[in-house]
From TrEMBL:
It is a multi-pass membrane protein. SUPFAM superfamilies: Thioredoxin-like. Belongs to the OST3/OST6 family. Residues 1-24 form the signal peptide. Subunit of the oligosaccharyl transferase (OST) complex that catalyzes the initial transfer of a defined glycan (Glc(3)Man(9)GlcNAc(2) in eukaryotes) from the lipid carrier dolichol-pyrophosphate to an asparagine residue within an Asn-X-Ser/Thr consensus motif in nascent polypeptide chains, the first step in protein N-glycosylation. N-glycosylation occurs cotranslationally and the complex associates with the Sec61 complex at the channel-forming translocon complex that mediates protein translocation across the endoplasmic reticulum (ER). All subunits are required for a maximal enzyme activity. GO terms for molecular function: transferase activity. GO terms for cellular component: oligosaccharyltransferase complex. It comes from Modicella reniformis. This is Oligosaccharyl transferase subunit ost3/OST6.
């Protein structure tokens, strides 16, 4: 019995030592697996961002996954509602600006330090409710979390203070993440063409006035043209552009440029120029009916000018009404276009 007892005690001791070493080895594996799992997670996020120009599309489940603790990266998440049924004009305005920042960041060497996500209301209603989101767009910044015991933290971007432009948004991200990222906008050839055309018109006008200063200064047609040009600029919204500095155009979800902003409280730079041109054509057609047509002696030519002026006025006014309908689908009036 003594030998058996000693054998039994020895067996128990050996089994206990094996259990201790096994537990230690298992714990060591779990501790080592966490960094490996985090590395796999970061690589997966990098792959998703690379496929979508720096943007990671999220739903409620993916949101919880990418923000699970611990994480060695910061996360910027845009809460938006860009589906047509929501009619969220600020969402449509900010969407290309947000993507501009995300695309620029994805080209940097340290791109794994911050990831940019987008969660739409249709795909993440529970997440909207979780954070008390009752309006869109909204942007939250989630900093690095080193431990699973750290309390959740996030900061919200103030659109009312900083606006919808990419530059102040990028500065805000820099201030939160400690980075030095600058927005690089693509070259706007349309804006360059408009500026070049404007400079040529100014130079041509100056040259014309210089050569015929006496006649021009006393010409009623010259001062009428200046007055009309000033009126067109003002009623088309140019002064609003100078105050609010809206984008010239925006890129739609299908990649095509958008030049008409929805809602009567918003507009784009190109939209202002289109409205000014429409008003110019409308005014020109009326002037043609009042001053040009009555001076034509040939009845056939006069009739042609009258009908052409009426047709031009009708067409331009129909386009203007259609523009109002694009800005506000509830606008009740139409003319040529339905």
């Amino acid at each position: 019995m003594g030998l058996s007892s000693r054998t039994f005690l020895l067996a128990v001791l050996i089994l206990g030592l094996v259990t201790i070493f096994s537990s230690s080895s298992s714990s060591s594996f779990v501790v080592d697996a966490q960094p490996n799992d985090l590395e796999v997670k970061v690589n997966r996020l990098q792959a998703k961002a690379a496929k979508n120009k720096g943007i990671i599309d999220l739903d409620s489940n993916a949101f919880d996954e990418v923000l699970s603790k611990p994480r060695n990266y910061s996360m910027v998440v845009l809460f938006t509602a860009i589906s047509p049924e929501f009619k969220c004009t600020p969402c449509l305005h900010f969407d290309p600006e947000y993507k501009l920042v995300a695309t620029g960041w994805s080209k940097l060497a340290g791109k794994s330090k911050i990831f940019f996500g987008v969660i739409d209301f249709k795909a993440g209603q529970s997440t909207f409710q979780k954070f008390g989101m009752n309006s869109a767009p909204a942007v939250l910044f989630f900093p690095v979390v080193d431990s699973t015991s750290d309390p959740p933290k996030h900061e919200r971007y103030d659109f009312s203070k900083s606006g919808l432009q990419a530059e102040p948004f990028a500065n805000w991200v820099n201030s939160k993440a400690g980075t030095q990222f600058k927005v690089q906008r693509p070259f706007d050839y349309v804006a360059l063409g408009v500026r070049v055309l404007g400079v040529l018109l100014v130079l041509g006008s100056v040259a014309f006035i210089y050569t015929k200063a006496g006649k021009v200064s006393s010409s009623k047609h010259f001062w009428c043209a200046i007055s009309l040009f000033t009126i067109f600029i003002m009623i088309s919204g140019h002064m609003w552009n100078q105050i609010r500095n809206p984008p010239y155009t925006v890129q739609g979800r299908d990649g095509r440029p958008g030049f008409i902003a929805q809602g009567f409280q918003n507009q784009f730079g190109l939209e202002t120029q289109i409205v000014a041109v429409l008003y110019a054509f409308l005014t020109g057609s009326v002037i043609s009916l009042i001053t040009v047509a009555p001076r034509i002696d040939n009845a056939t030519t006069q009739r042609f000018v009258v009908w052409a002026s009426i047709a031009l006025f009708t067409l331009m006014f129909s386009v203007l009404i259609q523009l109002f309908r694009i800005k506000n689908p509830g606008y009740p009036f139409t003319l040529l276009f339905k």
